[in-house]
Amino acid sequence: MAGRADHRADLRRGARRDRRRRGQDLLHRAGHPRDPLRRAHRPGHHRQEGPRRGPAGAARRRADRGPAPRAAAPCAEGPRRAEGRWARPDRPTAASTSRTPYFCSGCPHNRSTALPEGSLGGGGIGCHTLVTASQREDSAVVGITQMGGEGSQWIGQAPYSHAGHTFQNVGDGTFFHSAQLAIQACVAAGVNITYKLLHNDVVAMTGAQKRQGEVEMAQLTHKLMNEGVKAIIVVADEPKRYRRAHFPAGVRLWHRDRLDEAQRDLREIEGVTVLIYDQHCAADARRQRKRGKLEPRNTRIVINEAVCEGCGDCGVKSNCLSVQPVETELGRKTRIDQTSCNTDYTCVEGECPSFMAIETDPTAKKAKRSTPEPPSVADPGYGELERTYGVFMAGIGGTGIVTVNQVLATAALRAGFGVESLDQVGMSQKAGPVTAHLRFGPGAIEPSNRVTPGSADALLGFDLLTLAEGKNLAYGDPARTRAVVSTSKTPTGPMVYDKDIAYPADDELLARVNGAASSLRAFDALSAADTLFGNTAAANFLLVGAAYQAGALPIPAAAIEEAIGINGVAVSANVAAFRWGRASVAAPEEFAKVTGTATAPVEEIVVPALDAATFDGEVRRLAEFRAPQLVAFQNQQTARAYVETVDRIWNAERAVTADTRFSEAVARYLFKLTAYKDEYEVARLLTAPAALDGVRAEVQGKISFKLSPPVFGAFLKGRKMTFGPRSHFMLRLLATMKFLRGTVLDPFGRAHVRRTERALLAHYSALVDSLAAELTEETYARAVRLAELPDMVRGYENVKMRNVEAYREALAAEGIDLTV
Questions:
Q1: CA-to-CA dists, residue 677 to 118, 312, 748, 795, angstroms
Q2: Residue 486: pLDDT above 80?
Q3: pLDDT (tens digit per residue) in 280-338
Q4: Which DSSP category does 178 fall into?
Q5: Which residues partner with 235 through β-bridges?
Q6: Which of 29, 222, 650, 800 is the most exposed place for a label (fewest CB within 10 A)?
Q7: Helix locations, 280-345, DSSP H
Q8: For residue 285, which of 96, 104, 27 has the smallest C-alpha distance?
Q9: DSSP 37-102
Q10: In 3-state terms, what secondary structure has residue 385?
Q11: Can you give 587-642 as a three-state secondary structure string?
């Protein structure tokens, strides 16, 4: 007996020793080169799922690679050969990026989970698990526990950590369920920890149910203080709701804008502290507003893309999926997706002047939008279905993929087929990947609701990025599968947060799909739906219509339209979308005519210097687009200087090579540095008639500008001023004063940012001239690289100056000194 007891004691000691080692390893792995408390950022590092070695690993790797390469097949744009732009590489690799679950637009987690510099945090369950899985550096999450154990891990880790303090994320549903016991345990243990309790009114992850055992905010703070919590700060998006609440003495009520200050304050207090972040669940608030149970928010936010610098600061501040990067002729810009926006307004914060607030009138009758009548098209002529047919669908959580599967299953049933279906969502309802399986056939079908890998007759890609993943392409068979996909670009969470993460090229993704199918049709369903219906809600049935007409969906059209009616949501729009989807295949010219984007009329400005220039091809196209804008920015002399510099570079380049990358880069980035957005230019771009007309076409209402003039920086303290319709004349007047730019009479020209912008232009002009003078085949690649570096100079005020510093460091790495 004694021997067994000693053996058990040894096992316990060994277990404790292992736990200590794991705890120490966990916390020391969180080290940061600039701060020992922060974790290191490892670019490109992603947690792998599933085995990578042995037979299972080999199967996993084969699935990731996808099916073997094959020749390309017909698409909406006509047939393409294997050597065309959709050809598969000899050894297909994993996609350059993938879609992962993320927070809803306007979700309080977007802001509440950020930590101050130098702090660690613990993950929670529910929606908080998305923080643990994200790549955001400001979340600093180093671990996760079971439900109800949030923070208790710190009791064991604290004695062995040099951190001395940690934050712990926890939701209110989890708190009322069991996590309150973990807080009590931390109080009893006397550890230094700040619980970040998200008070969002519902159990958000599982469908916005009521929290069992919930109490009002004031009662909650009394409970926590009575249990030994040392300090509590409540930060809320609407603090006025609690001004009459009877909080205990010492509890502070702040606006959520002071979150960072609150966290820095609480982490300095010994013992257990609690920060309560109060904001209603965004997804539930959207539902409640639609049902009339919550007061609607009538202010919509629109970004003036001409003013936007594409710096990504609004994405960092809001972490919101509705803040979407878009590619334009002048580079990456940002746009607010009005369909998914939940009116959180966090994106407006910062120094960027591109944001416009449109105050809509809820009592005004919306103008009835006339949707063009889809043309009648011939039936594709399906024969009698004699076997079980398999359809695999891939899309984005929350966009209706499950609804599409349900409608198609209903349609197959109404057509007399036996049906089996399966939806796989998991965490995917949070903008992650969703897949759906549909099997139907005559009579009783084989008992399986899942399409077997390699047996899908149709691949429907409502999101091309999701479908292009190897594990999803494995369902296709190059000999039998027809693929119909939407090329619409919906950014992932990391793309919103990190401006350096680019969306994969269509060619790359389509090539991957093409290798798993015998035919491929592709079109931008979101853009077409927005043009046809004024929103993107009906985009899925555009794709369903295209799939039906392309021979990929052998369910009678009448049955599909009947099932849309049975579903009972937006019936007329979805039926019209289904018919227009059929037209995209059967009448592509008419479809393109109706869904094509009309070019807004622009004022034609003649630049005589262009007539004398010798460049041609892409360089001429770039210069002809930009030179007239420089006249509007300043005058003809500025445009002439730009054209002459580009022409000199072109001629020097022609003496060395036929390549035009160097002169193209100069045409792009010399314009960028010349047309810097000072007060005069911002005023001109904001009040331009074409810009205002574009906003009115998107949202009807009174337009105001959200600005943070640098001259009022000390007074505003990070906030913005609202310039309503009555103040627009002041901005128009300011725009006419551009002749003062850079002169001794320029009231803004002495600011450090403005002097820096002028110095950058002078330095770049001299740099490209010197590179052109010494241009050889050996130095060409370096010249192109240096000419493209100004792309990183983006943003306004402090954001811009940080990017200028990064530009300076990049030049220094090339042996070039920049003094500004």
A1: 34, 16, 12, 9
A2: yes
A3: 988 888 888 888 888 888 999 999 999 999 999 999 889 899 999 988 999 999 999 88
A4: I
A5: 254, 277
A6: 29
A7: 282-290, 313-318
A8: 104
A9: TSPPP-TT-----S--SHHHHHHHHHHHH-SPP------TT----TTSTTPPPSS----S------
A10: coil
A11: CHHHHHHHHCCCCCCCCCCCCCHHHHCCCCHHHHHHHHHHHHHHHHHCCHHHHHHH
8 A C-beta contact, residue 550 and residue 484:
yes
How does pLDDT run across 552-570, given as a tens digit for each residue? 999 999 999 999 999 999 9
Rounded-to-integer distance, Cα 456 and Cα 437, Å:
9
Tens digits of residue pLDDT in 683-711: 999 999 988 988 888 888 999 999 988 76
Beta bridge partners of 521: 484
User: In sequence order, what E strands does 102-249 have?
Assistant: 121-123, 141-144, 166-171, 193-199, 231-236
- Find, among 569, 567, 584, 562, the residue nearest to 538 by Cα: 569
Q: Compute the distance between CA of residue 740 and CA of residue 737 in angstroms, rounded to an integer.
A: 6
Which is it for strands 458-461 and 433-442: parallel, antiparallel or unpaired? unpaired
For residue 705, the surrounding DSSP H or E stretch is strand 702-707
Q: Give the total residue count for the chain.
A: 820
Count of H-run helices and E-run strands, the chain: 32, 19
What lies within 8 Å, CB to CB, of 180 at 6+ separation is 223
Q: What is the pLDDT of residues 668-684, one digit of tens each?
A: 999 999 999 999 999 99
User: Environment class of residue 707 by beta-carbon count within 10 Å: exposed (0-12), middle (13-18) or buried (19+)?
Assistant: buried
Query: In terms of Cα–Cα distance, which of 342, 296, 351 is closest to 321?
Result: 342
Amino acid at 20: R
| The one-letter amino acid at 805 | E
Q: Could you tell me where the beta strands, DSSP code E, fall in 173-328? A: 193-199, 231-236, 252-255, 272-278, 299-303, 323-328
Question: Helical H runs in 109-179?
Answer: 109-112, 129-133, 153-157, 172-174
Question: Which amino acid belongs to residue 43?
Answer: P
DSSP class of residue 408? H
Residues with Cβ within 8 Å of residue 534, at least 6 apart in sequence: 369
Tokens of 347: 């994106």
Torsion of CA 753, 754, 760, 766, to 10 degrees: -160
